[in-house]
Each structure stands twice: as structure tokens, then as C-alpha cells.
């Protein structure tokens, strides 16, 4: 029997940051592809393994479950070029725990999708947002957790003290 290397499943990230006015109307929005980070690939792989063996974990001698939770979205004001090796945002402004999630199945031509939403209420001071990312196994503490993805964008998004922000992070799995 010959061992073969499995085909790689492409994973792509896409983020959308939407600023909402006090009346709920969209004030500004940015959307774009991001970098999936090495620590993110590790967190995703560990969570998939646990999902596949959870019912047999005790029989397999596995004592520690591995989840992505708590999952946090974060926004920042730093500058730089995101890289797979990133573990934090350049300059984190704030983070919020996931508020909603959904999955869409794959087809022969369309990638499967995992989407999470993060709601940021009105900031205490105006924010100039230039980057965003998601963190698995995180806390509310800046920089905590395993960075799944990182996105930097221009022009900047300004979030005033009367506005809120919604961050949508989607991972596309497959073609």
C-alpha cells in the first residue's frame, strides 16, 4: 500500500466591516479577502478532529476537548501587511465575542462557508479602523487566543461615538 499526500482543501477568508448610524442605517462599509493565519489553521484542524472523535474521546484516551470557542472578533487601528505568521492585530482597539453564526453547504462549484458576526456597540471615543481579525480560544483581553485570520484595509473606517460596527467573518472551504 502506497501512502499518498491528501489534496489540500483551500481555505479563504472574507471580512466585511459595516458602520451603522444611530438609526440603524449603513454609514460606511468595507469588504475584502484576508489572510488565514498559521495559528488559525491549527485551531481549525484541532476543532475538526475533536468534532470527529468527541463521541469516542474517552475510548481513545483523549481527555481534553478542543473547540474554537470562545470566539472573538477584533478591530484595530494599526498599519502593516497581514501575514500568515501573524498572531495579533497591529494595534487592537476592541473585541467582541461572537453574536451569531451560520454555515452554508458546498456544491461542486461553490465553497462551503462558515460565517460569524460580531457586534461592536458605540465606542467611548471615535475609532479609526484599519484592520480586523478573529481569535479562537480567546478572552476579552486584547491579543488573547489563536488568530484565525487578519485583514487590513484602506481607506479607513471611522466609527463615531453615536455609531456601532458589525464585523462579519466568513471562511470559505473548497473551490
Element layout with pairings:
Elements: E1 11-20, E2 26-36, H1 38-53, H2 57-60, E3 72-76, E4 92-97, E5 100-104, E6 112-120, E7 127-136, E8 146-159, E9 164-173
Antiparallel strand pairs: 1-2, 1-9, 2-8, 3-4, 3-7, 5-6, 6-9, 7-8
Summarize the structure.
The protein is mostly beta strands and 175 residues long. It has helices at 38-53, 57-60, and strands spanning 11-20, 26-36, 72-76, 92-97, 100-104, 112-120, 127-136, 146-159, 164-173.
Question: What would your notes on this structure say?
Answer:
- With 175 residues, this protein is mainly beta.
- It has one domain (13-50, 65-173).
- It contains 2 helices and 9 strands.
- A hairpin with a 5-residue loop joins strand 1 (11-20) and strand 2.
- The two termini are 29 Å apart.
- The model has no long low-confidence stretch (mean pLDDT 92).
The structure class reads: mainly beta
| Uncertain regions spanning at least 5 consecutive residues | none
Gyration radius from CA atoms, angstroms: 17 Å
Q: Can you count the helices?
A: 2
Give the count of structural domains. 1
Succession of helices and strands: EEHHEEEEEEE
Give the rounded overall mean pLDDT: 92
Biggest sheet: strands side by side, in what order? 4-3-7-8-2-1-9-6-5
Distance between the termini: 29 Å
What profile does the largest beta sheet have? 9 strands, antiparallel
Amino acid at each position: 500500500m502506497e501512502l499518498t499526500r491528501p489534496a489540500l482543501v483551500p481555505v479563504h477568508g472574507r471580512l466585511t466591516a459595516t458602520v451603522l448610524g444611530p438609526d440603524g442605517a449603513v454609514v460606511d462599509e468595507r469588504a475584502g479577502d484576508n489572510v488565514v493565519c498559521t495559528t488559525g489553521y491549527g485551531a481549525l484542524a484541532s476543532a475538526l478532529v475533536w468534532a470527529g472523535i468527541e463521541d469516542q474521546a474517552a475510548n481513545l484516551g483523549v481527555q481534553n476537548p478542543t473547540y474554537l470557542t470562545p470566539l472573538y472578533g477584533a478591530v484595530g487601528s494599526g498599519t502593516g501587511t497581514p501575514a500568515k505568521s501573524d498572531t495579533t492585530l497591529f494595534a487592537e482597539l476592541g473585541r467582541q465575542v461572537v453574536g451569531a453564526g451560520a454555515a452554508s453547504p458546498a456544491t461542486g462549484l461553490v465553497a462551503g462557508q462558515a460565517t460569524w458576526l460580531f457586534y461592536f456597540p458605540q465606542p467611548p471615543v471615535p475609532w479609526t479602523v484599519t484592520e480586523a481579525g478573529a481569535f479562537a480560544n480567546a478572552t476579552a483581553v486584547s491579543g488573547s487566543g489563536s488568530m484565525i485570520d487578519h485583514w487590513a484595509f484602506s481607506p479607513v473606517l471611522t466609527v463615531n461615538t453615536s455609531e456601532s460596527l458589525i464585523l462579519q467573518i466568513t471562511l470559505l472551504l473548497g473551490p
